[in-house]
Amino acid sequence: AVFAPEPYARMEFVATRQTATADVVVVPGGDFQQLVQLDEGEARAYYEEHRDEFPAPARVDVDYIALVFNDLYEMISFDEELLRDLYERRKDDYLRARHILFTPADDSPEALDEAYARAEEALARLDAGEDFAELAGELSEDASAADGGDLGFFRRNADPTLEGPAGRKMVDEFEIAAFALDPETYTTEPVQTQFGYHLIYREPDEIPFEDIKSALEHELRMDQTLEAIDGYVEEIQKGLDRGESLEEITQRLGSLGIEVQSVENLAEDAVIVNEKIGSFLGFRAAAFALEEPGELSGIITRDYSMPGEESQSLRRDYYVLRLVERQPSEPYPFEEVQGRVESQLVRERAAEMAAVAAAELRDAADETDLETACAAAGFEIINVVGVTRSGSLPGIGNAAKPARWAFELNPGELSPVVEQGESYYLVRGVSIDEPSPVDYGASLEDTRLSLSYALRNPFFEAWVGELVAEAEVRNLLPELIAKAEQRRLEELQRQMEEEEDAG
């Protein structure tokens, strides 16, 4: 229902397409800064008059306890028998394979067909009894040819964050085909991946215990750490529910050796650098959410989730904070901000000097002309073509106020002194360049359409606002979290049942 009539479209077109040409003189405040001389007394007096412009952030002192995942991970110990038991359950997740790779020259169908044909020829030679490793050394078109196509051991569903075979990831098509083979057999058809066509042979070898011992240790540590940390978090929550102090809660955590620690003068805008806290911004937010001394936060969780890194997504640290003292925001002492004070005062003084110079230049131009006045004072007249109403002064920069004057002046007319930031301008009108009627006609419908969208937005926002005001809102987040946790528990249960069946 909202429609932009043509007069509106005309105004919009002119405002965005009309340009002007003007003569501009710039008197920069920065050019006068080197002329400003200050002593400490002036800077201190300026500071006293402008103390509120130099506020120090609010600060807090807090005590806290930290249940750090990595600390608990390092404390976990187990005997080699557990590792051997896990090895027996995990060794079938590894295999050793060889391959012969045929790489197409490009992505064209012809090149793909040609690579497939080469793979079929090699497959025929294997079926005729030739040795896979020798044929790989002769035909494979990758670096593994030197080792008879040997790719070593790799793991099903490998975790790339781990070292050794446990972190050696094959592309899905290759992995599926390799694990579908019986030992000492090869694929009966070429397997296509992003690299080309593969013939794959599964070696009979069983991965040695020592090759994956570190991965097994990591798995055991992760499992036991996750189980233990859930129990410790539950104990912390019980303590909070009973109104216990941080000291009493640490006693609940037994032999972990967790102690109440302190952070003093934590600034509201601080980047925390602390062994136990790191750069965790949630810690700072929780600290400043506390209001009364002695008040405890709830359990604050630090999540290390990272896309594609399963082991990181399971890692979490937990904190509980206690407010000791709040220090409200107040001005920095002069000695801490003296440099900032002096810099600000110099800029203001320089701007004042620039204003005086610009006013004198304007008076001189009235008495003679702009060219004579600029020559005498050492300023340059810049002829600026293509000034826009948006504030662009080509060759000078964006300066909205002097740019607007370029559209208000008659040819030869001189503006008053125009202040923009810390600089001052004189603008002399030259011409206003009207946009082409042909351009206007060609863009009329597009201009009207874009203007109509702009006019519709306030009506649309008002309508949405009315809907929101009348709506009944239900928070689904707790329900979603509960469902996600249930799925996690079901998946863990499924994995445990599979391991029991395998055992």
Features:
4-stranded antiparallel β-sheet, extended, single chain
Task: Give a brief description.
This protein is α+β, with helices and mostly antiparallel strands and 503 residues long. It is built from 16 helices and 16 strands.
What would you note in describing this structure?
The longest helix is centred in the C-terminal third of the chain and has 34 residues. Helices cover 46% and strands 19% of the residues. The strands form 5 sheets. It has a 4-stranded antiparallel β-sheet. Strands 8-3-10-9 form a 4-stranded antiparallel β-sheet. Strands 5-4-7-6 form a 4-stranded antiparallel β-sheet, sandwiched between helices. By secondary structure, the chain is α+β, with helices and mostly antiparallel strands. The mean pLDDT is 89. It is built from 16 helices and 16 strands. The two termini are 71 Å apart. Strand 6 and strand 7 form a beta hairpin.
Topology:
Blueprint: H1 6-17, E1 19-28, H2 40-49, E2 55-56, E3 59-67, H3 69-75, H4 80-90, E4 94-102, H5 109-127, H6 132-139, E5 150-155, H7 172-179, E6 191-193, E7 196-202, H8 213-241, H9 246-252, E8 261-267, H10 281-289, E9 300-303, H11 310-313, E10 316-327, E11 330-331, H12 334-367, H13 370-377, E12 382-388, E13 392-393, E14 397-398, H14 400-406, E15 418-420, E16 423-433, H15 437-470, H16 477-502
Antiparallel strand pairs: 1-12, 1-16, 2-11, 3-8, 3-10, 4-5, 4-7, 6-7, 9-10, 13-14, 15-16
Helix pairs in contact: 1-15, 2-12, 3-8, 4-8, 8-9, 12-13
